[in-house]
């Protein structure tokens, strides 16, 4: 755990929780990001204007690198927002100057520097094979870097920025790299899954760009007694009856249905306003919803298999 007071604390994972073990060498400056080397022998930590590498066994700082030593006449501080420690010994940092930088931690030297944005690069993630990196910026853009040969058949490789994507409107605060996709989450409350098309064998759901917008309030309400679900959309509501089964089983088991789920009605909102909230009563006889300026209440009546609705 990296702390605002500049300390790095090690905790042991024990049955039922975690247990404090010890502090590593403390220095001035907030710890903003951490990354373990895959060997677990070293930890890289990003701070303001500096990155440090700790030896885990001794707890001492074994390398201190100024991330701005080659920038002339810089007056503002450089914040290292994200860091990754590769098995090759390379440390990758992203910072508030919009740079992604690659460092040789043992020599303390800069290997490569890429300016990808005029504002901050906030997040980065490395693929399992360590041949691809995704970074997220404060402008809503994400970029991919790939480790590619300098020329065809060459053993010498360089990090190359290959793909920019603009799927977010605000800061991209979290990124993840799966074997087949780049995943990013932003302050716009969207989760975006961008497939790497060269990894896809065929078209389908996995090969589609997917955007998930996280709702800020509950969009589904349940009438337990009547076994109904009310789904809220921006301009309409849908009322469904749950399917049922004759069999019993344990939690988590999938049981065969003797009656399929049934769509009972769709209730459209009038006017341009979006539905703000909605609810169905426990007995299933009342449905209510509200826009920013109006409240609507409906009586639902069930006649055999038919359903009728009356505005109250």
UniProtKB/TrEMBL annotation:
Q: Please provide the Gene Ontology terms (biological process) for this protein.
A: maturation of SSU-rRNA from tricistronic rRNA transcript (SSU-rRNA, 5.8S rRNA, LSU-rRNA)
Question: InterPro entries in the record, alphabetically?
Answer: UTP4, WD40/YVTN_repeat-like_dom_sf, WD40_repeat_dom_sf, WD40_rpt
GO CC annotation, single:
small-subunit processome
The record's annotation in Gene3D superfamilies points to: YVTN repeat-like/Quinoprotein amine dehydrogenase (2.130.10.10)
The membrane-spanning stretches of this chain are none
List the Pfam families.
WD40
Superkingdom field = Eukaryota
Q: Which GO terms describe its molecular function?
A: RNA binding
Q: What is this protein called?
A: Cirhin
- Species assigned in the record: Aptenodytes patagonicus (King penguin)
């Amino acid at each position: 755990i990296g702390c605002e007071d500049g300390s790095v604390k090690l905790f042991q994972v024990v049955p039922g929780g975690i247990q404090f073990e010890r502090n590593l060498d403390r220095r001035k400056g907030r710890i903003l990001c951490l990354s373990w080397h895959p060997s677990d022998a070293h930890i890289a930590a990003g701070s303001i204007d500096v990155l440090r590498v700790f030896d885990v066994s001794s707890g001492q700082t074994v390398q201190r690198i100024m991330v701005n030593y080659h920038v002339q006449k810089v007056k503002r501080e450089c914040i290292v927002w994200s860091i990754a420690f590769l098995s090759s010994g390379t440390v990758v940092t992203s910072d508030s100057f919009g740079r992604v930088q690659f460092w040789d931690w043992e020599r303390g030297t800069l290997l490569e520097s890429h300016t990808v944005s005029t504002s901050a690069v906030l997040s980065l993630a490395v693929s399992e094979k360590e041949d691809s990196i995704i970074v997220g910026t404060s402008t809503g853009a994400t970029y991919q870097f790939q480790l590619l040969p300098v020329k065809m058949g060459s053993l010498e490789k360089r990090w190359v920025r290959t793909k920019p994507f603009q799927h977010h409107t605000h800061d991209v605060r979290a990124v993840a790299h799966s074997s087949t996709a780049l995943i990013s989450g932003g302050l716009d409350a969207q989760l975006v899954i961008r497939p790497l098309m060269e990894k896809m064998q065929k078209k389908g759901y996995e090969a589609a760009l997917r955007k998930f917008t996280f709702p800020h309030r509950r969009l589904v309400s349940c009438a337990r007694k009547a076994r109904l679900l009310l789904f809220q959309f921006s301009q309409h509501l849908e009322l469904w009856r749950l399917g049922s089964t004759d069999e019993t089983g344990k939690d988590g088991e999938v049981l065969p249905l003797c009656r399929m789920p049934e769509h009972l009605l769709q209730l459209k909102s009038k006017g341009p306003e979006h539905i703000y909230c909605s609810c169905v009563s426990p007995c299933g006889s009342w449905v209510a919803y509200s826009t920013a300026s109006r409240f609507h209440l409906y009586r639902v009546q069930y006649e055999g298999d038919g359903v009728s609705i009356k505005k109250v």
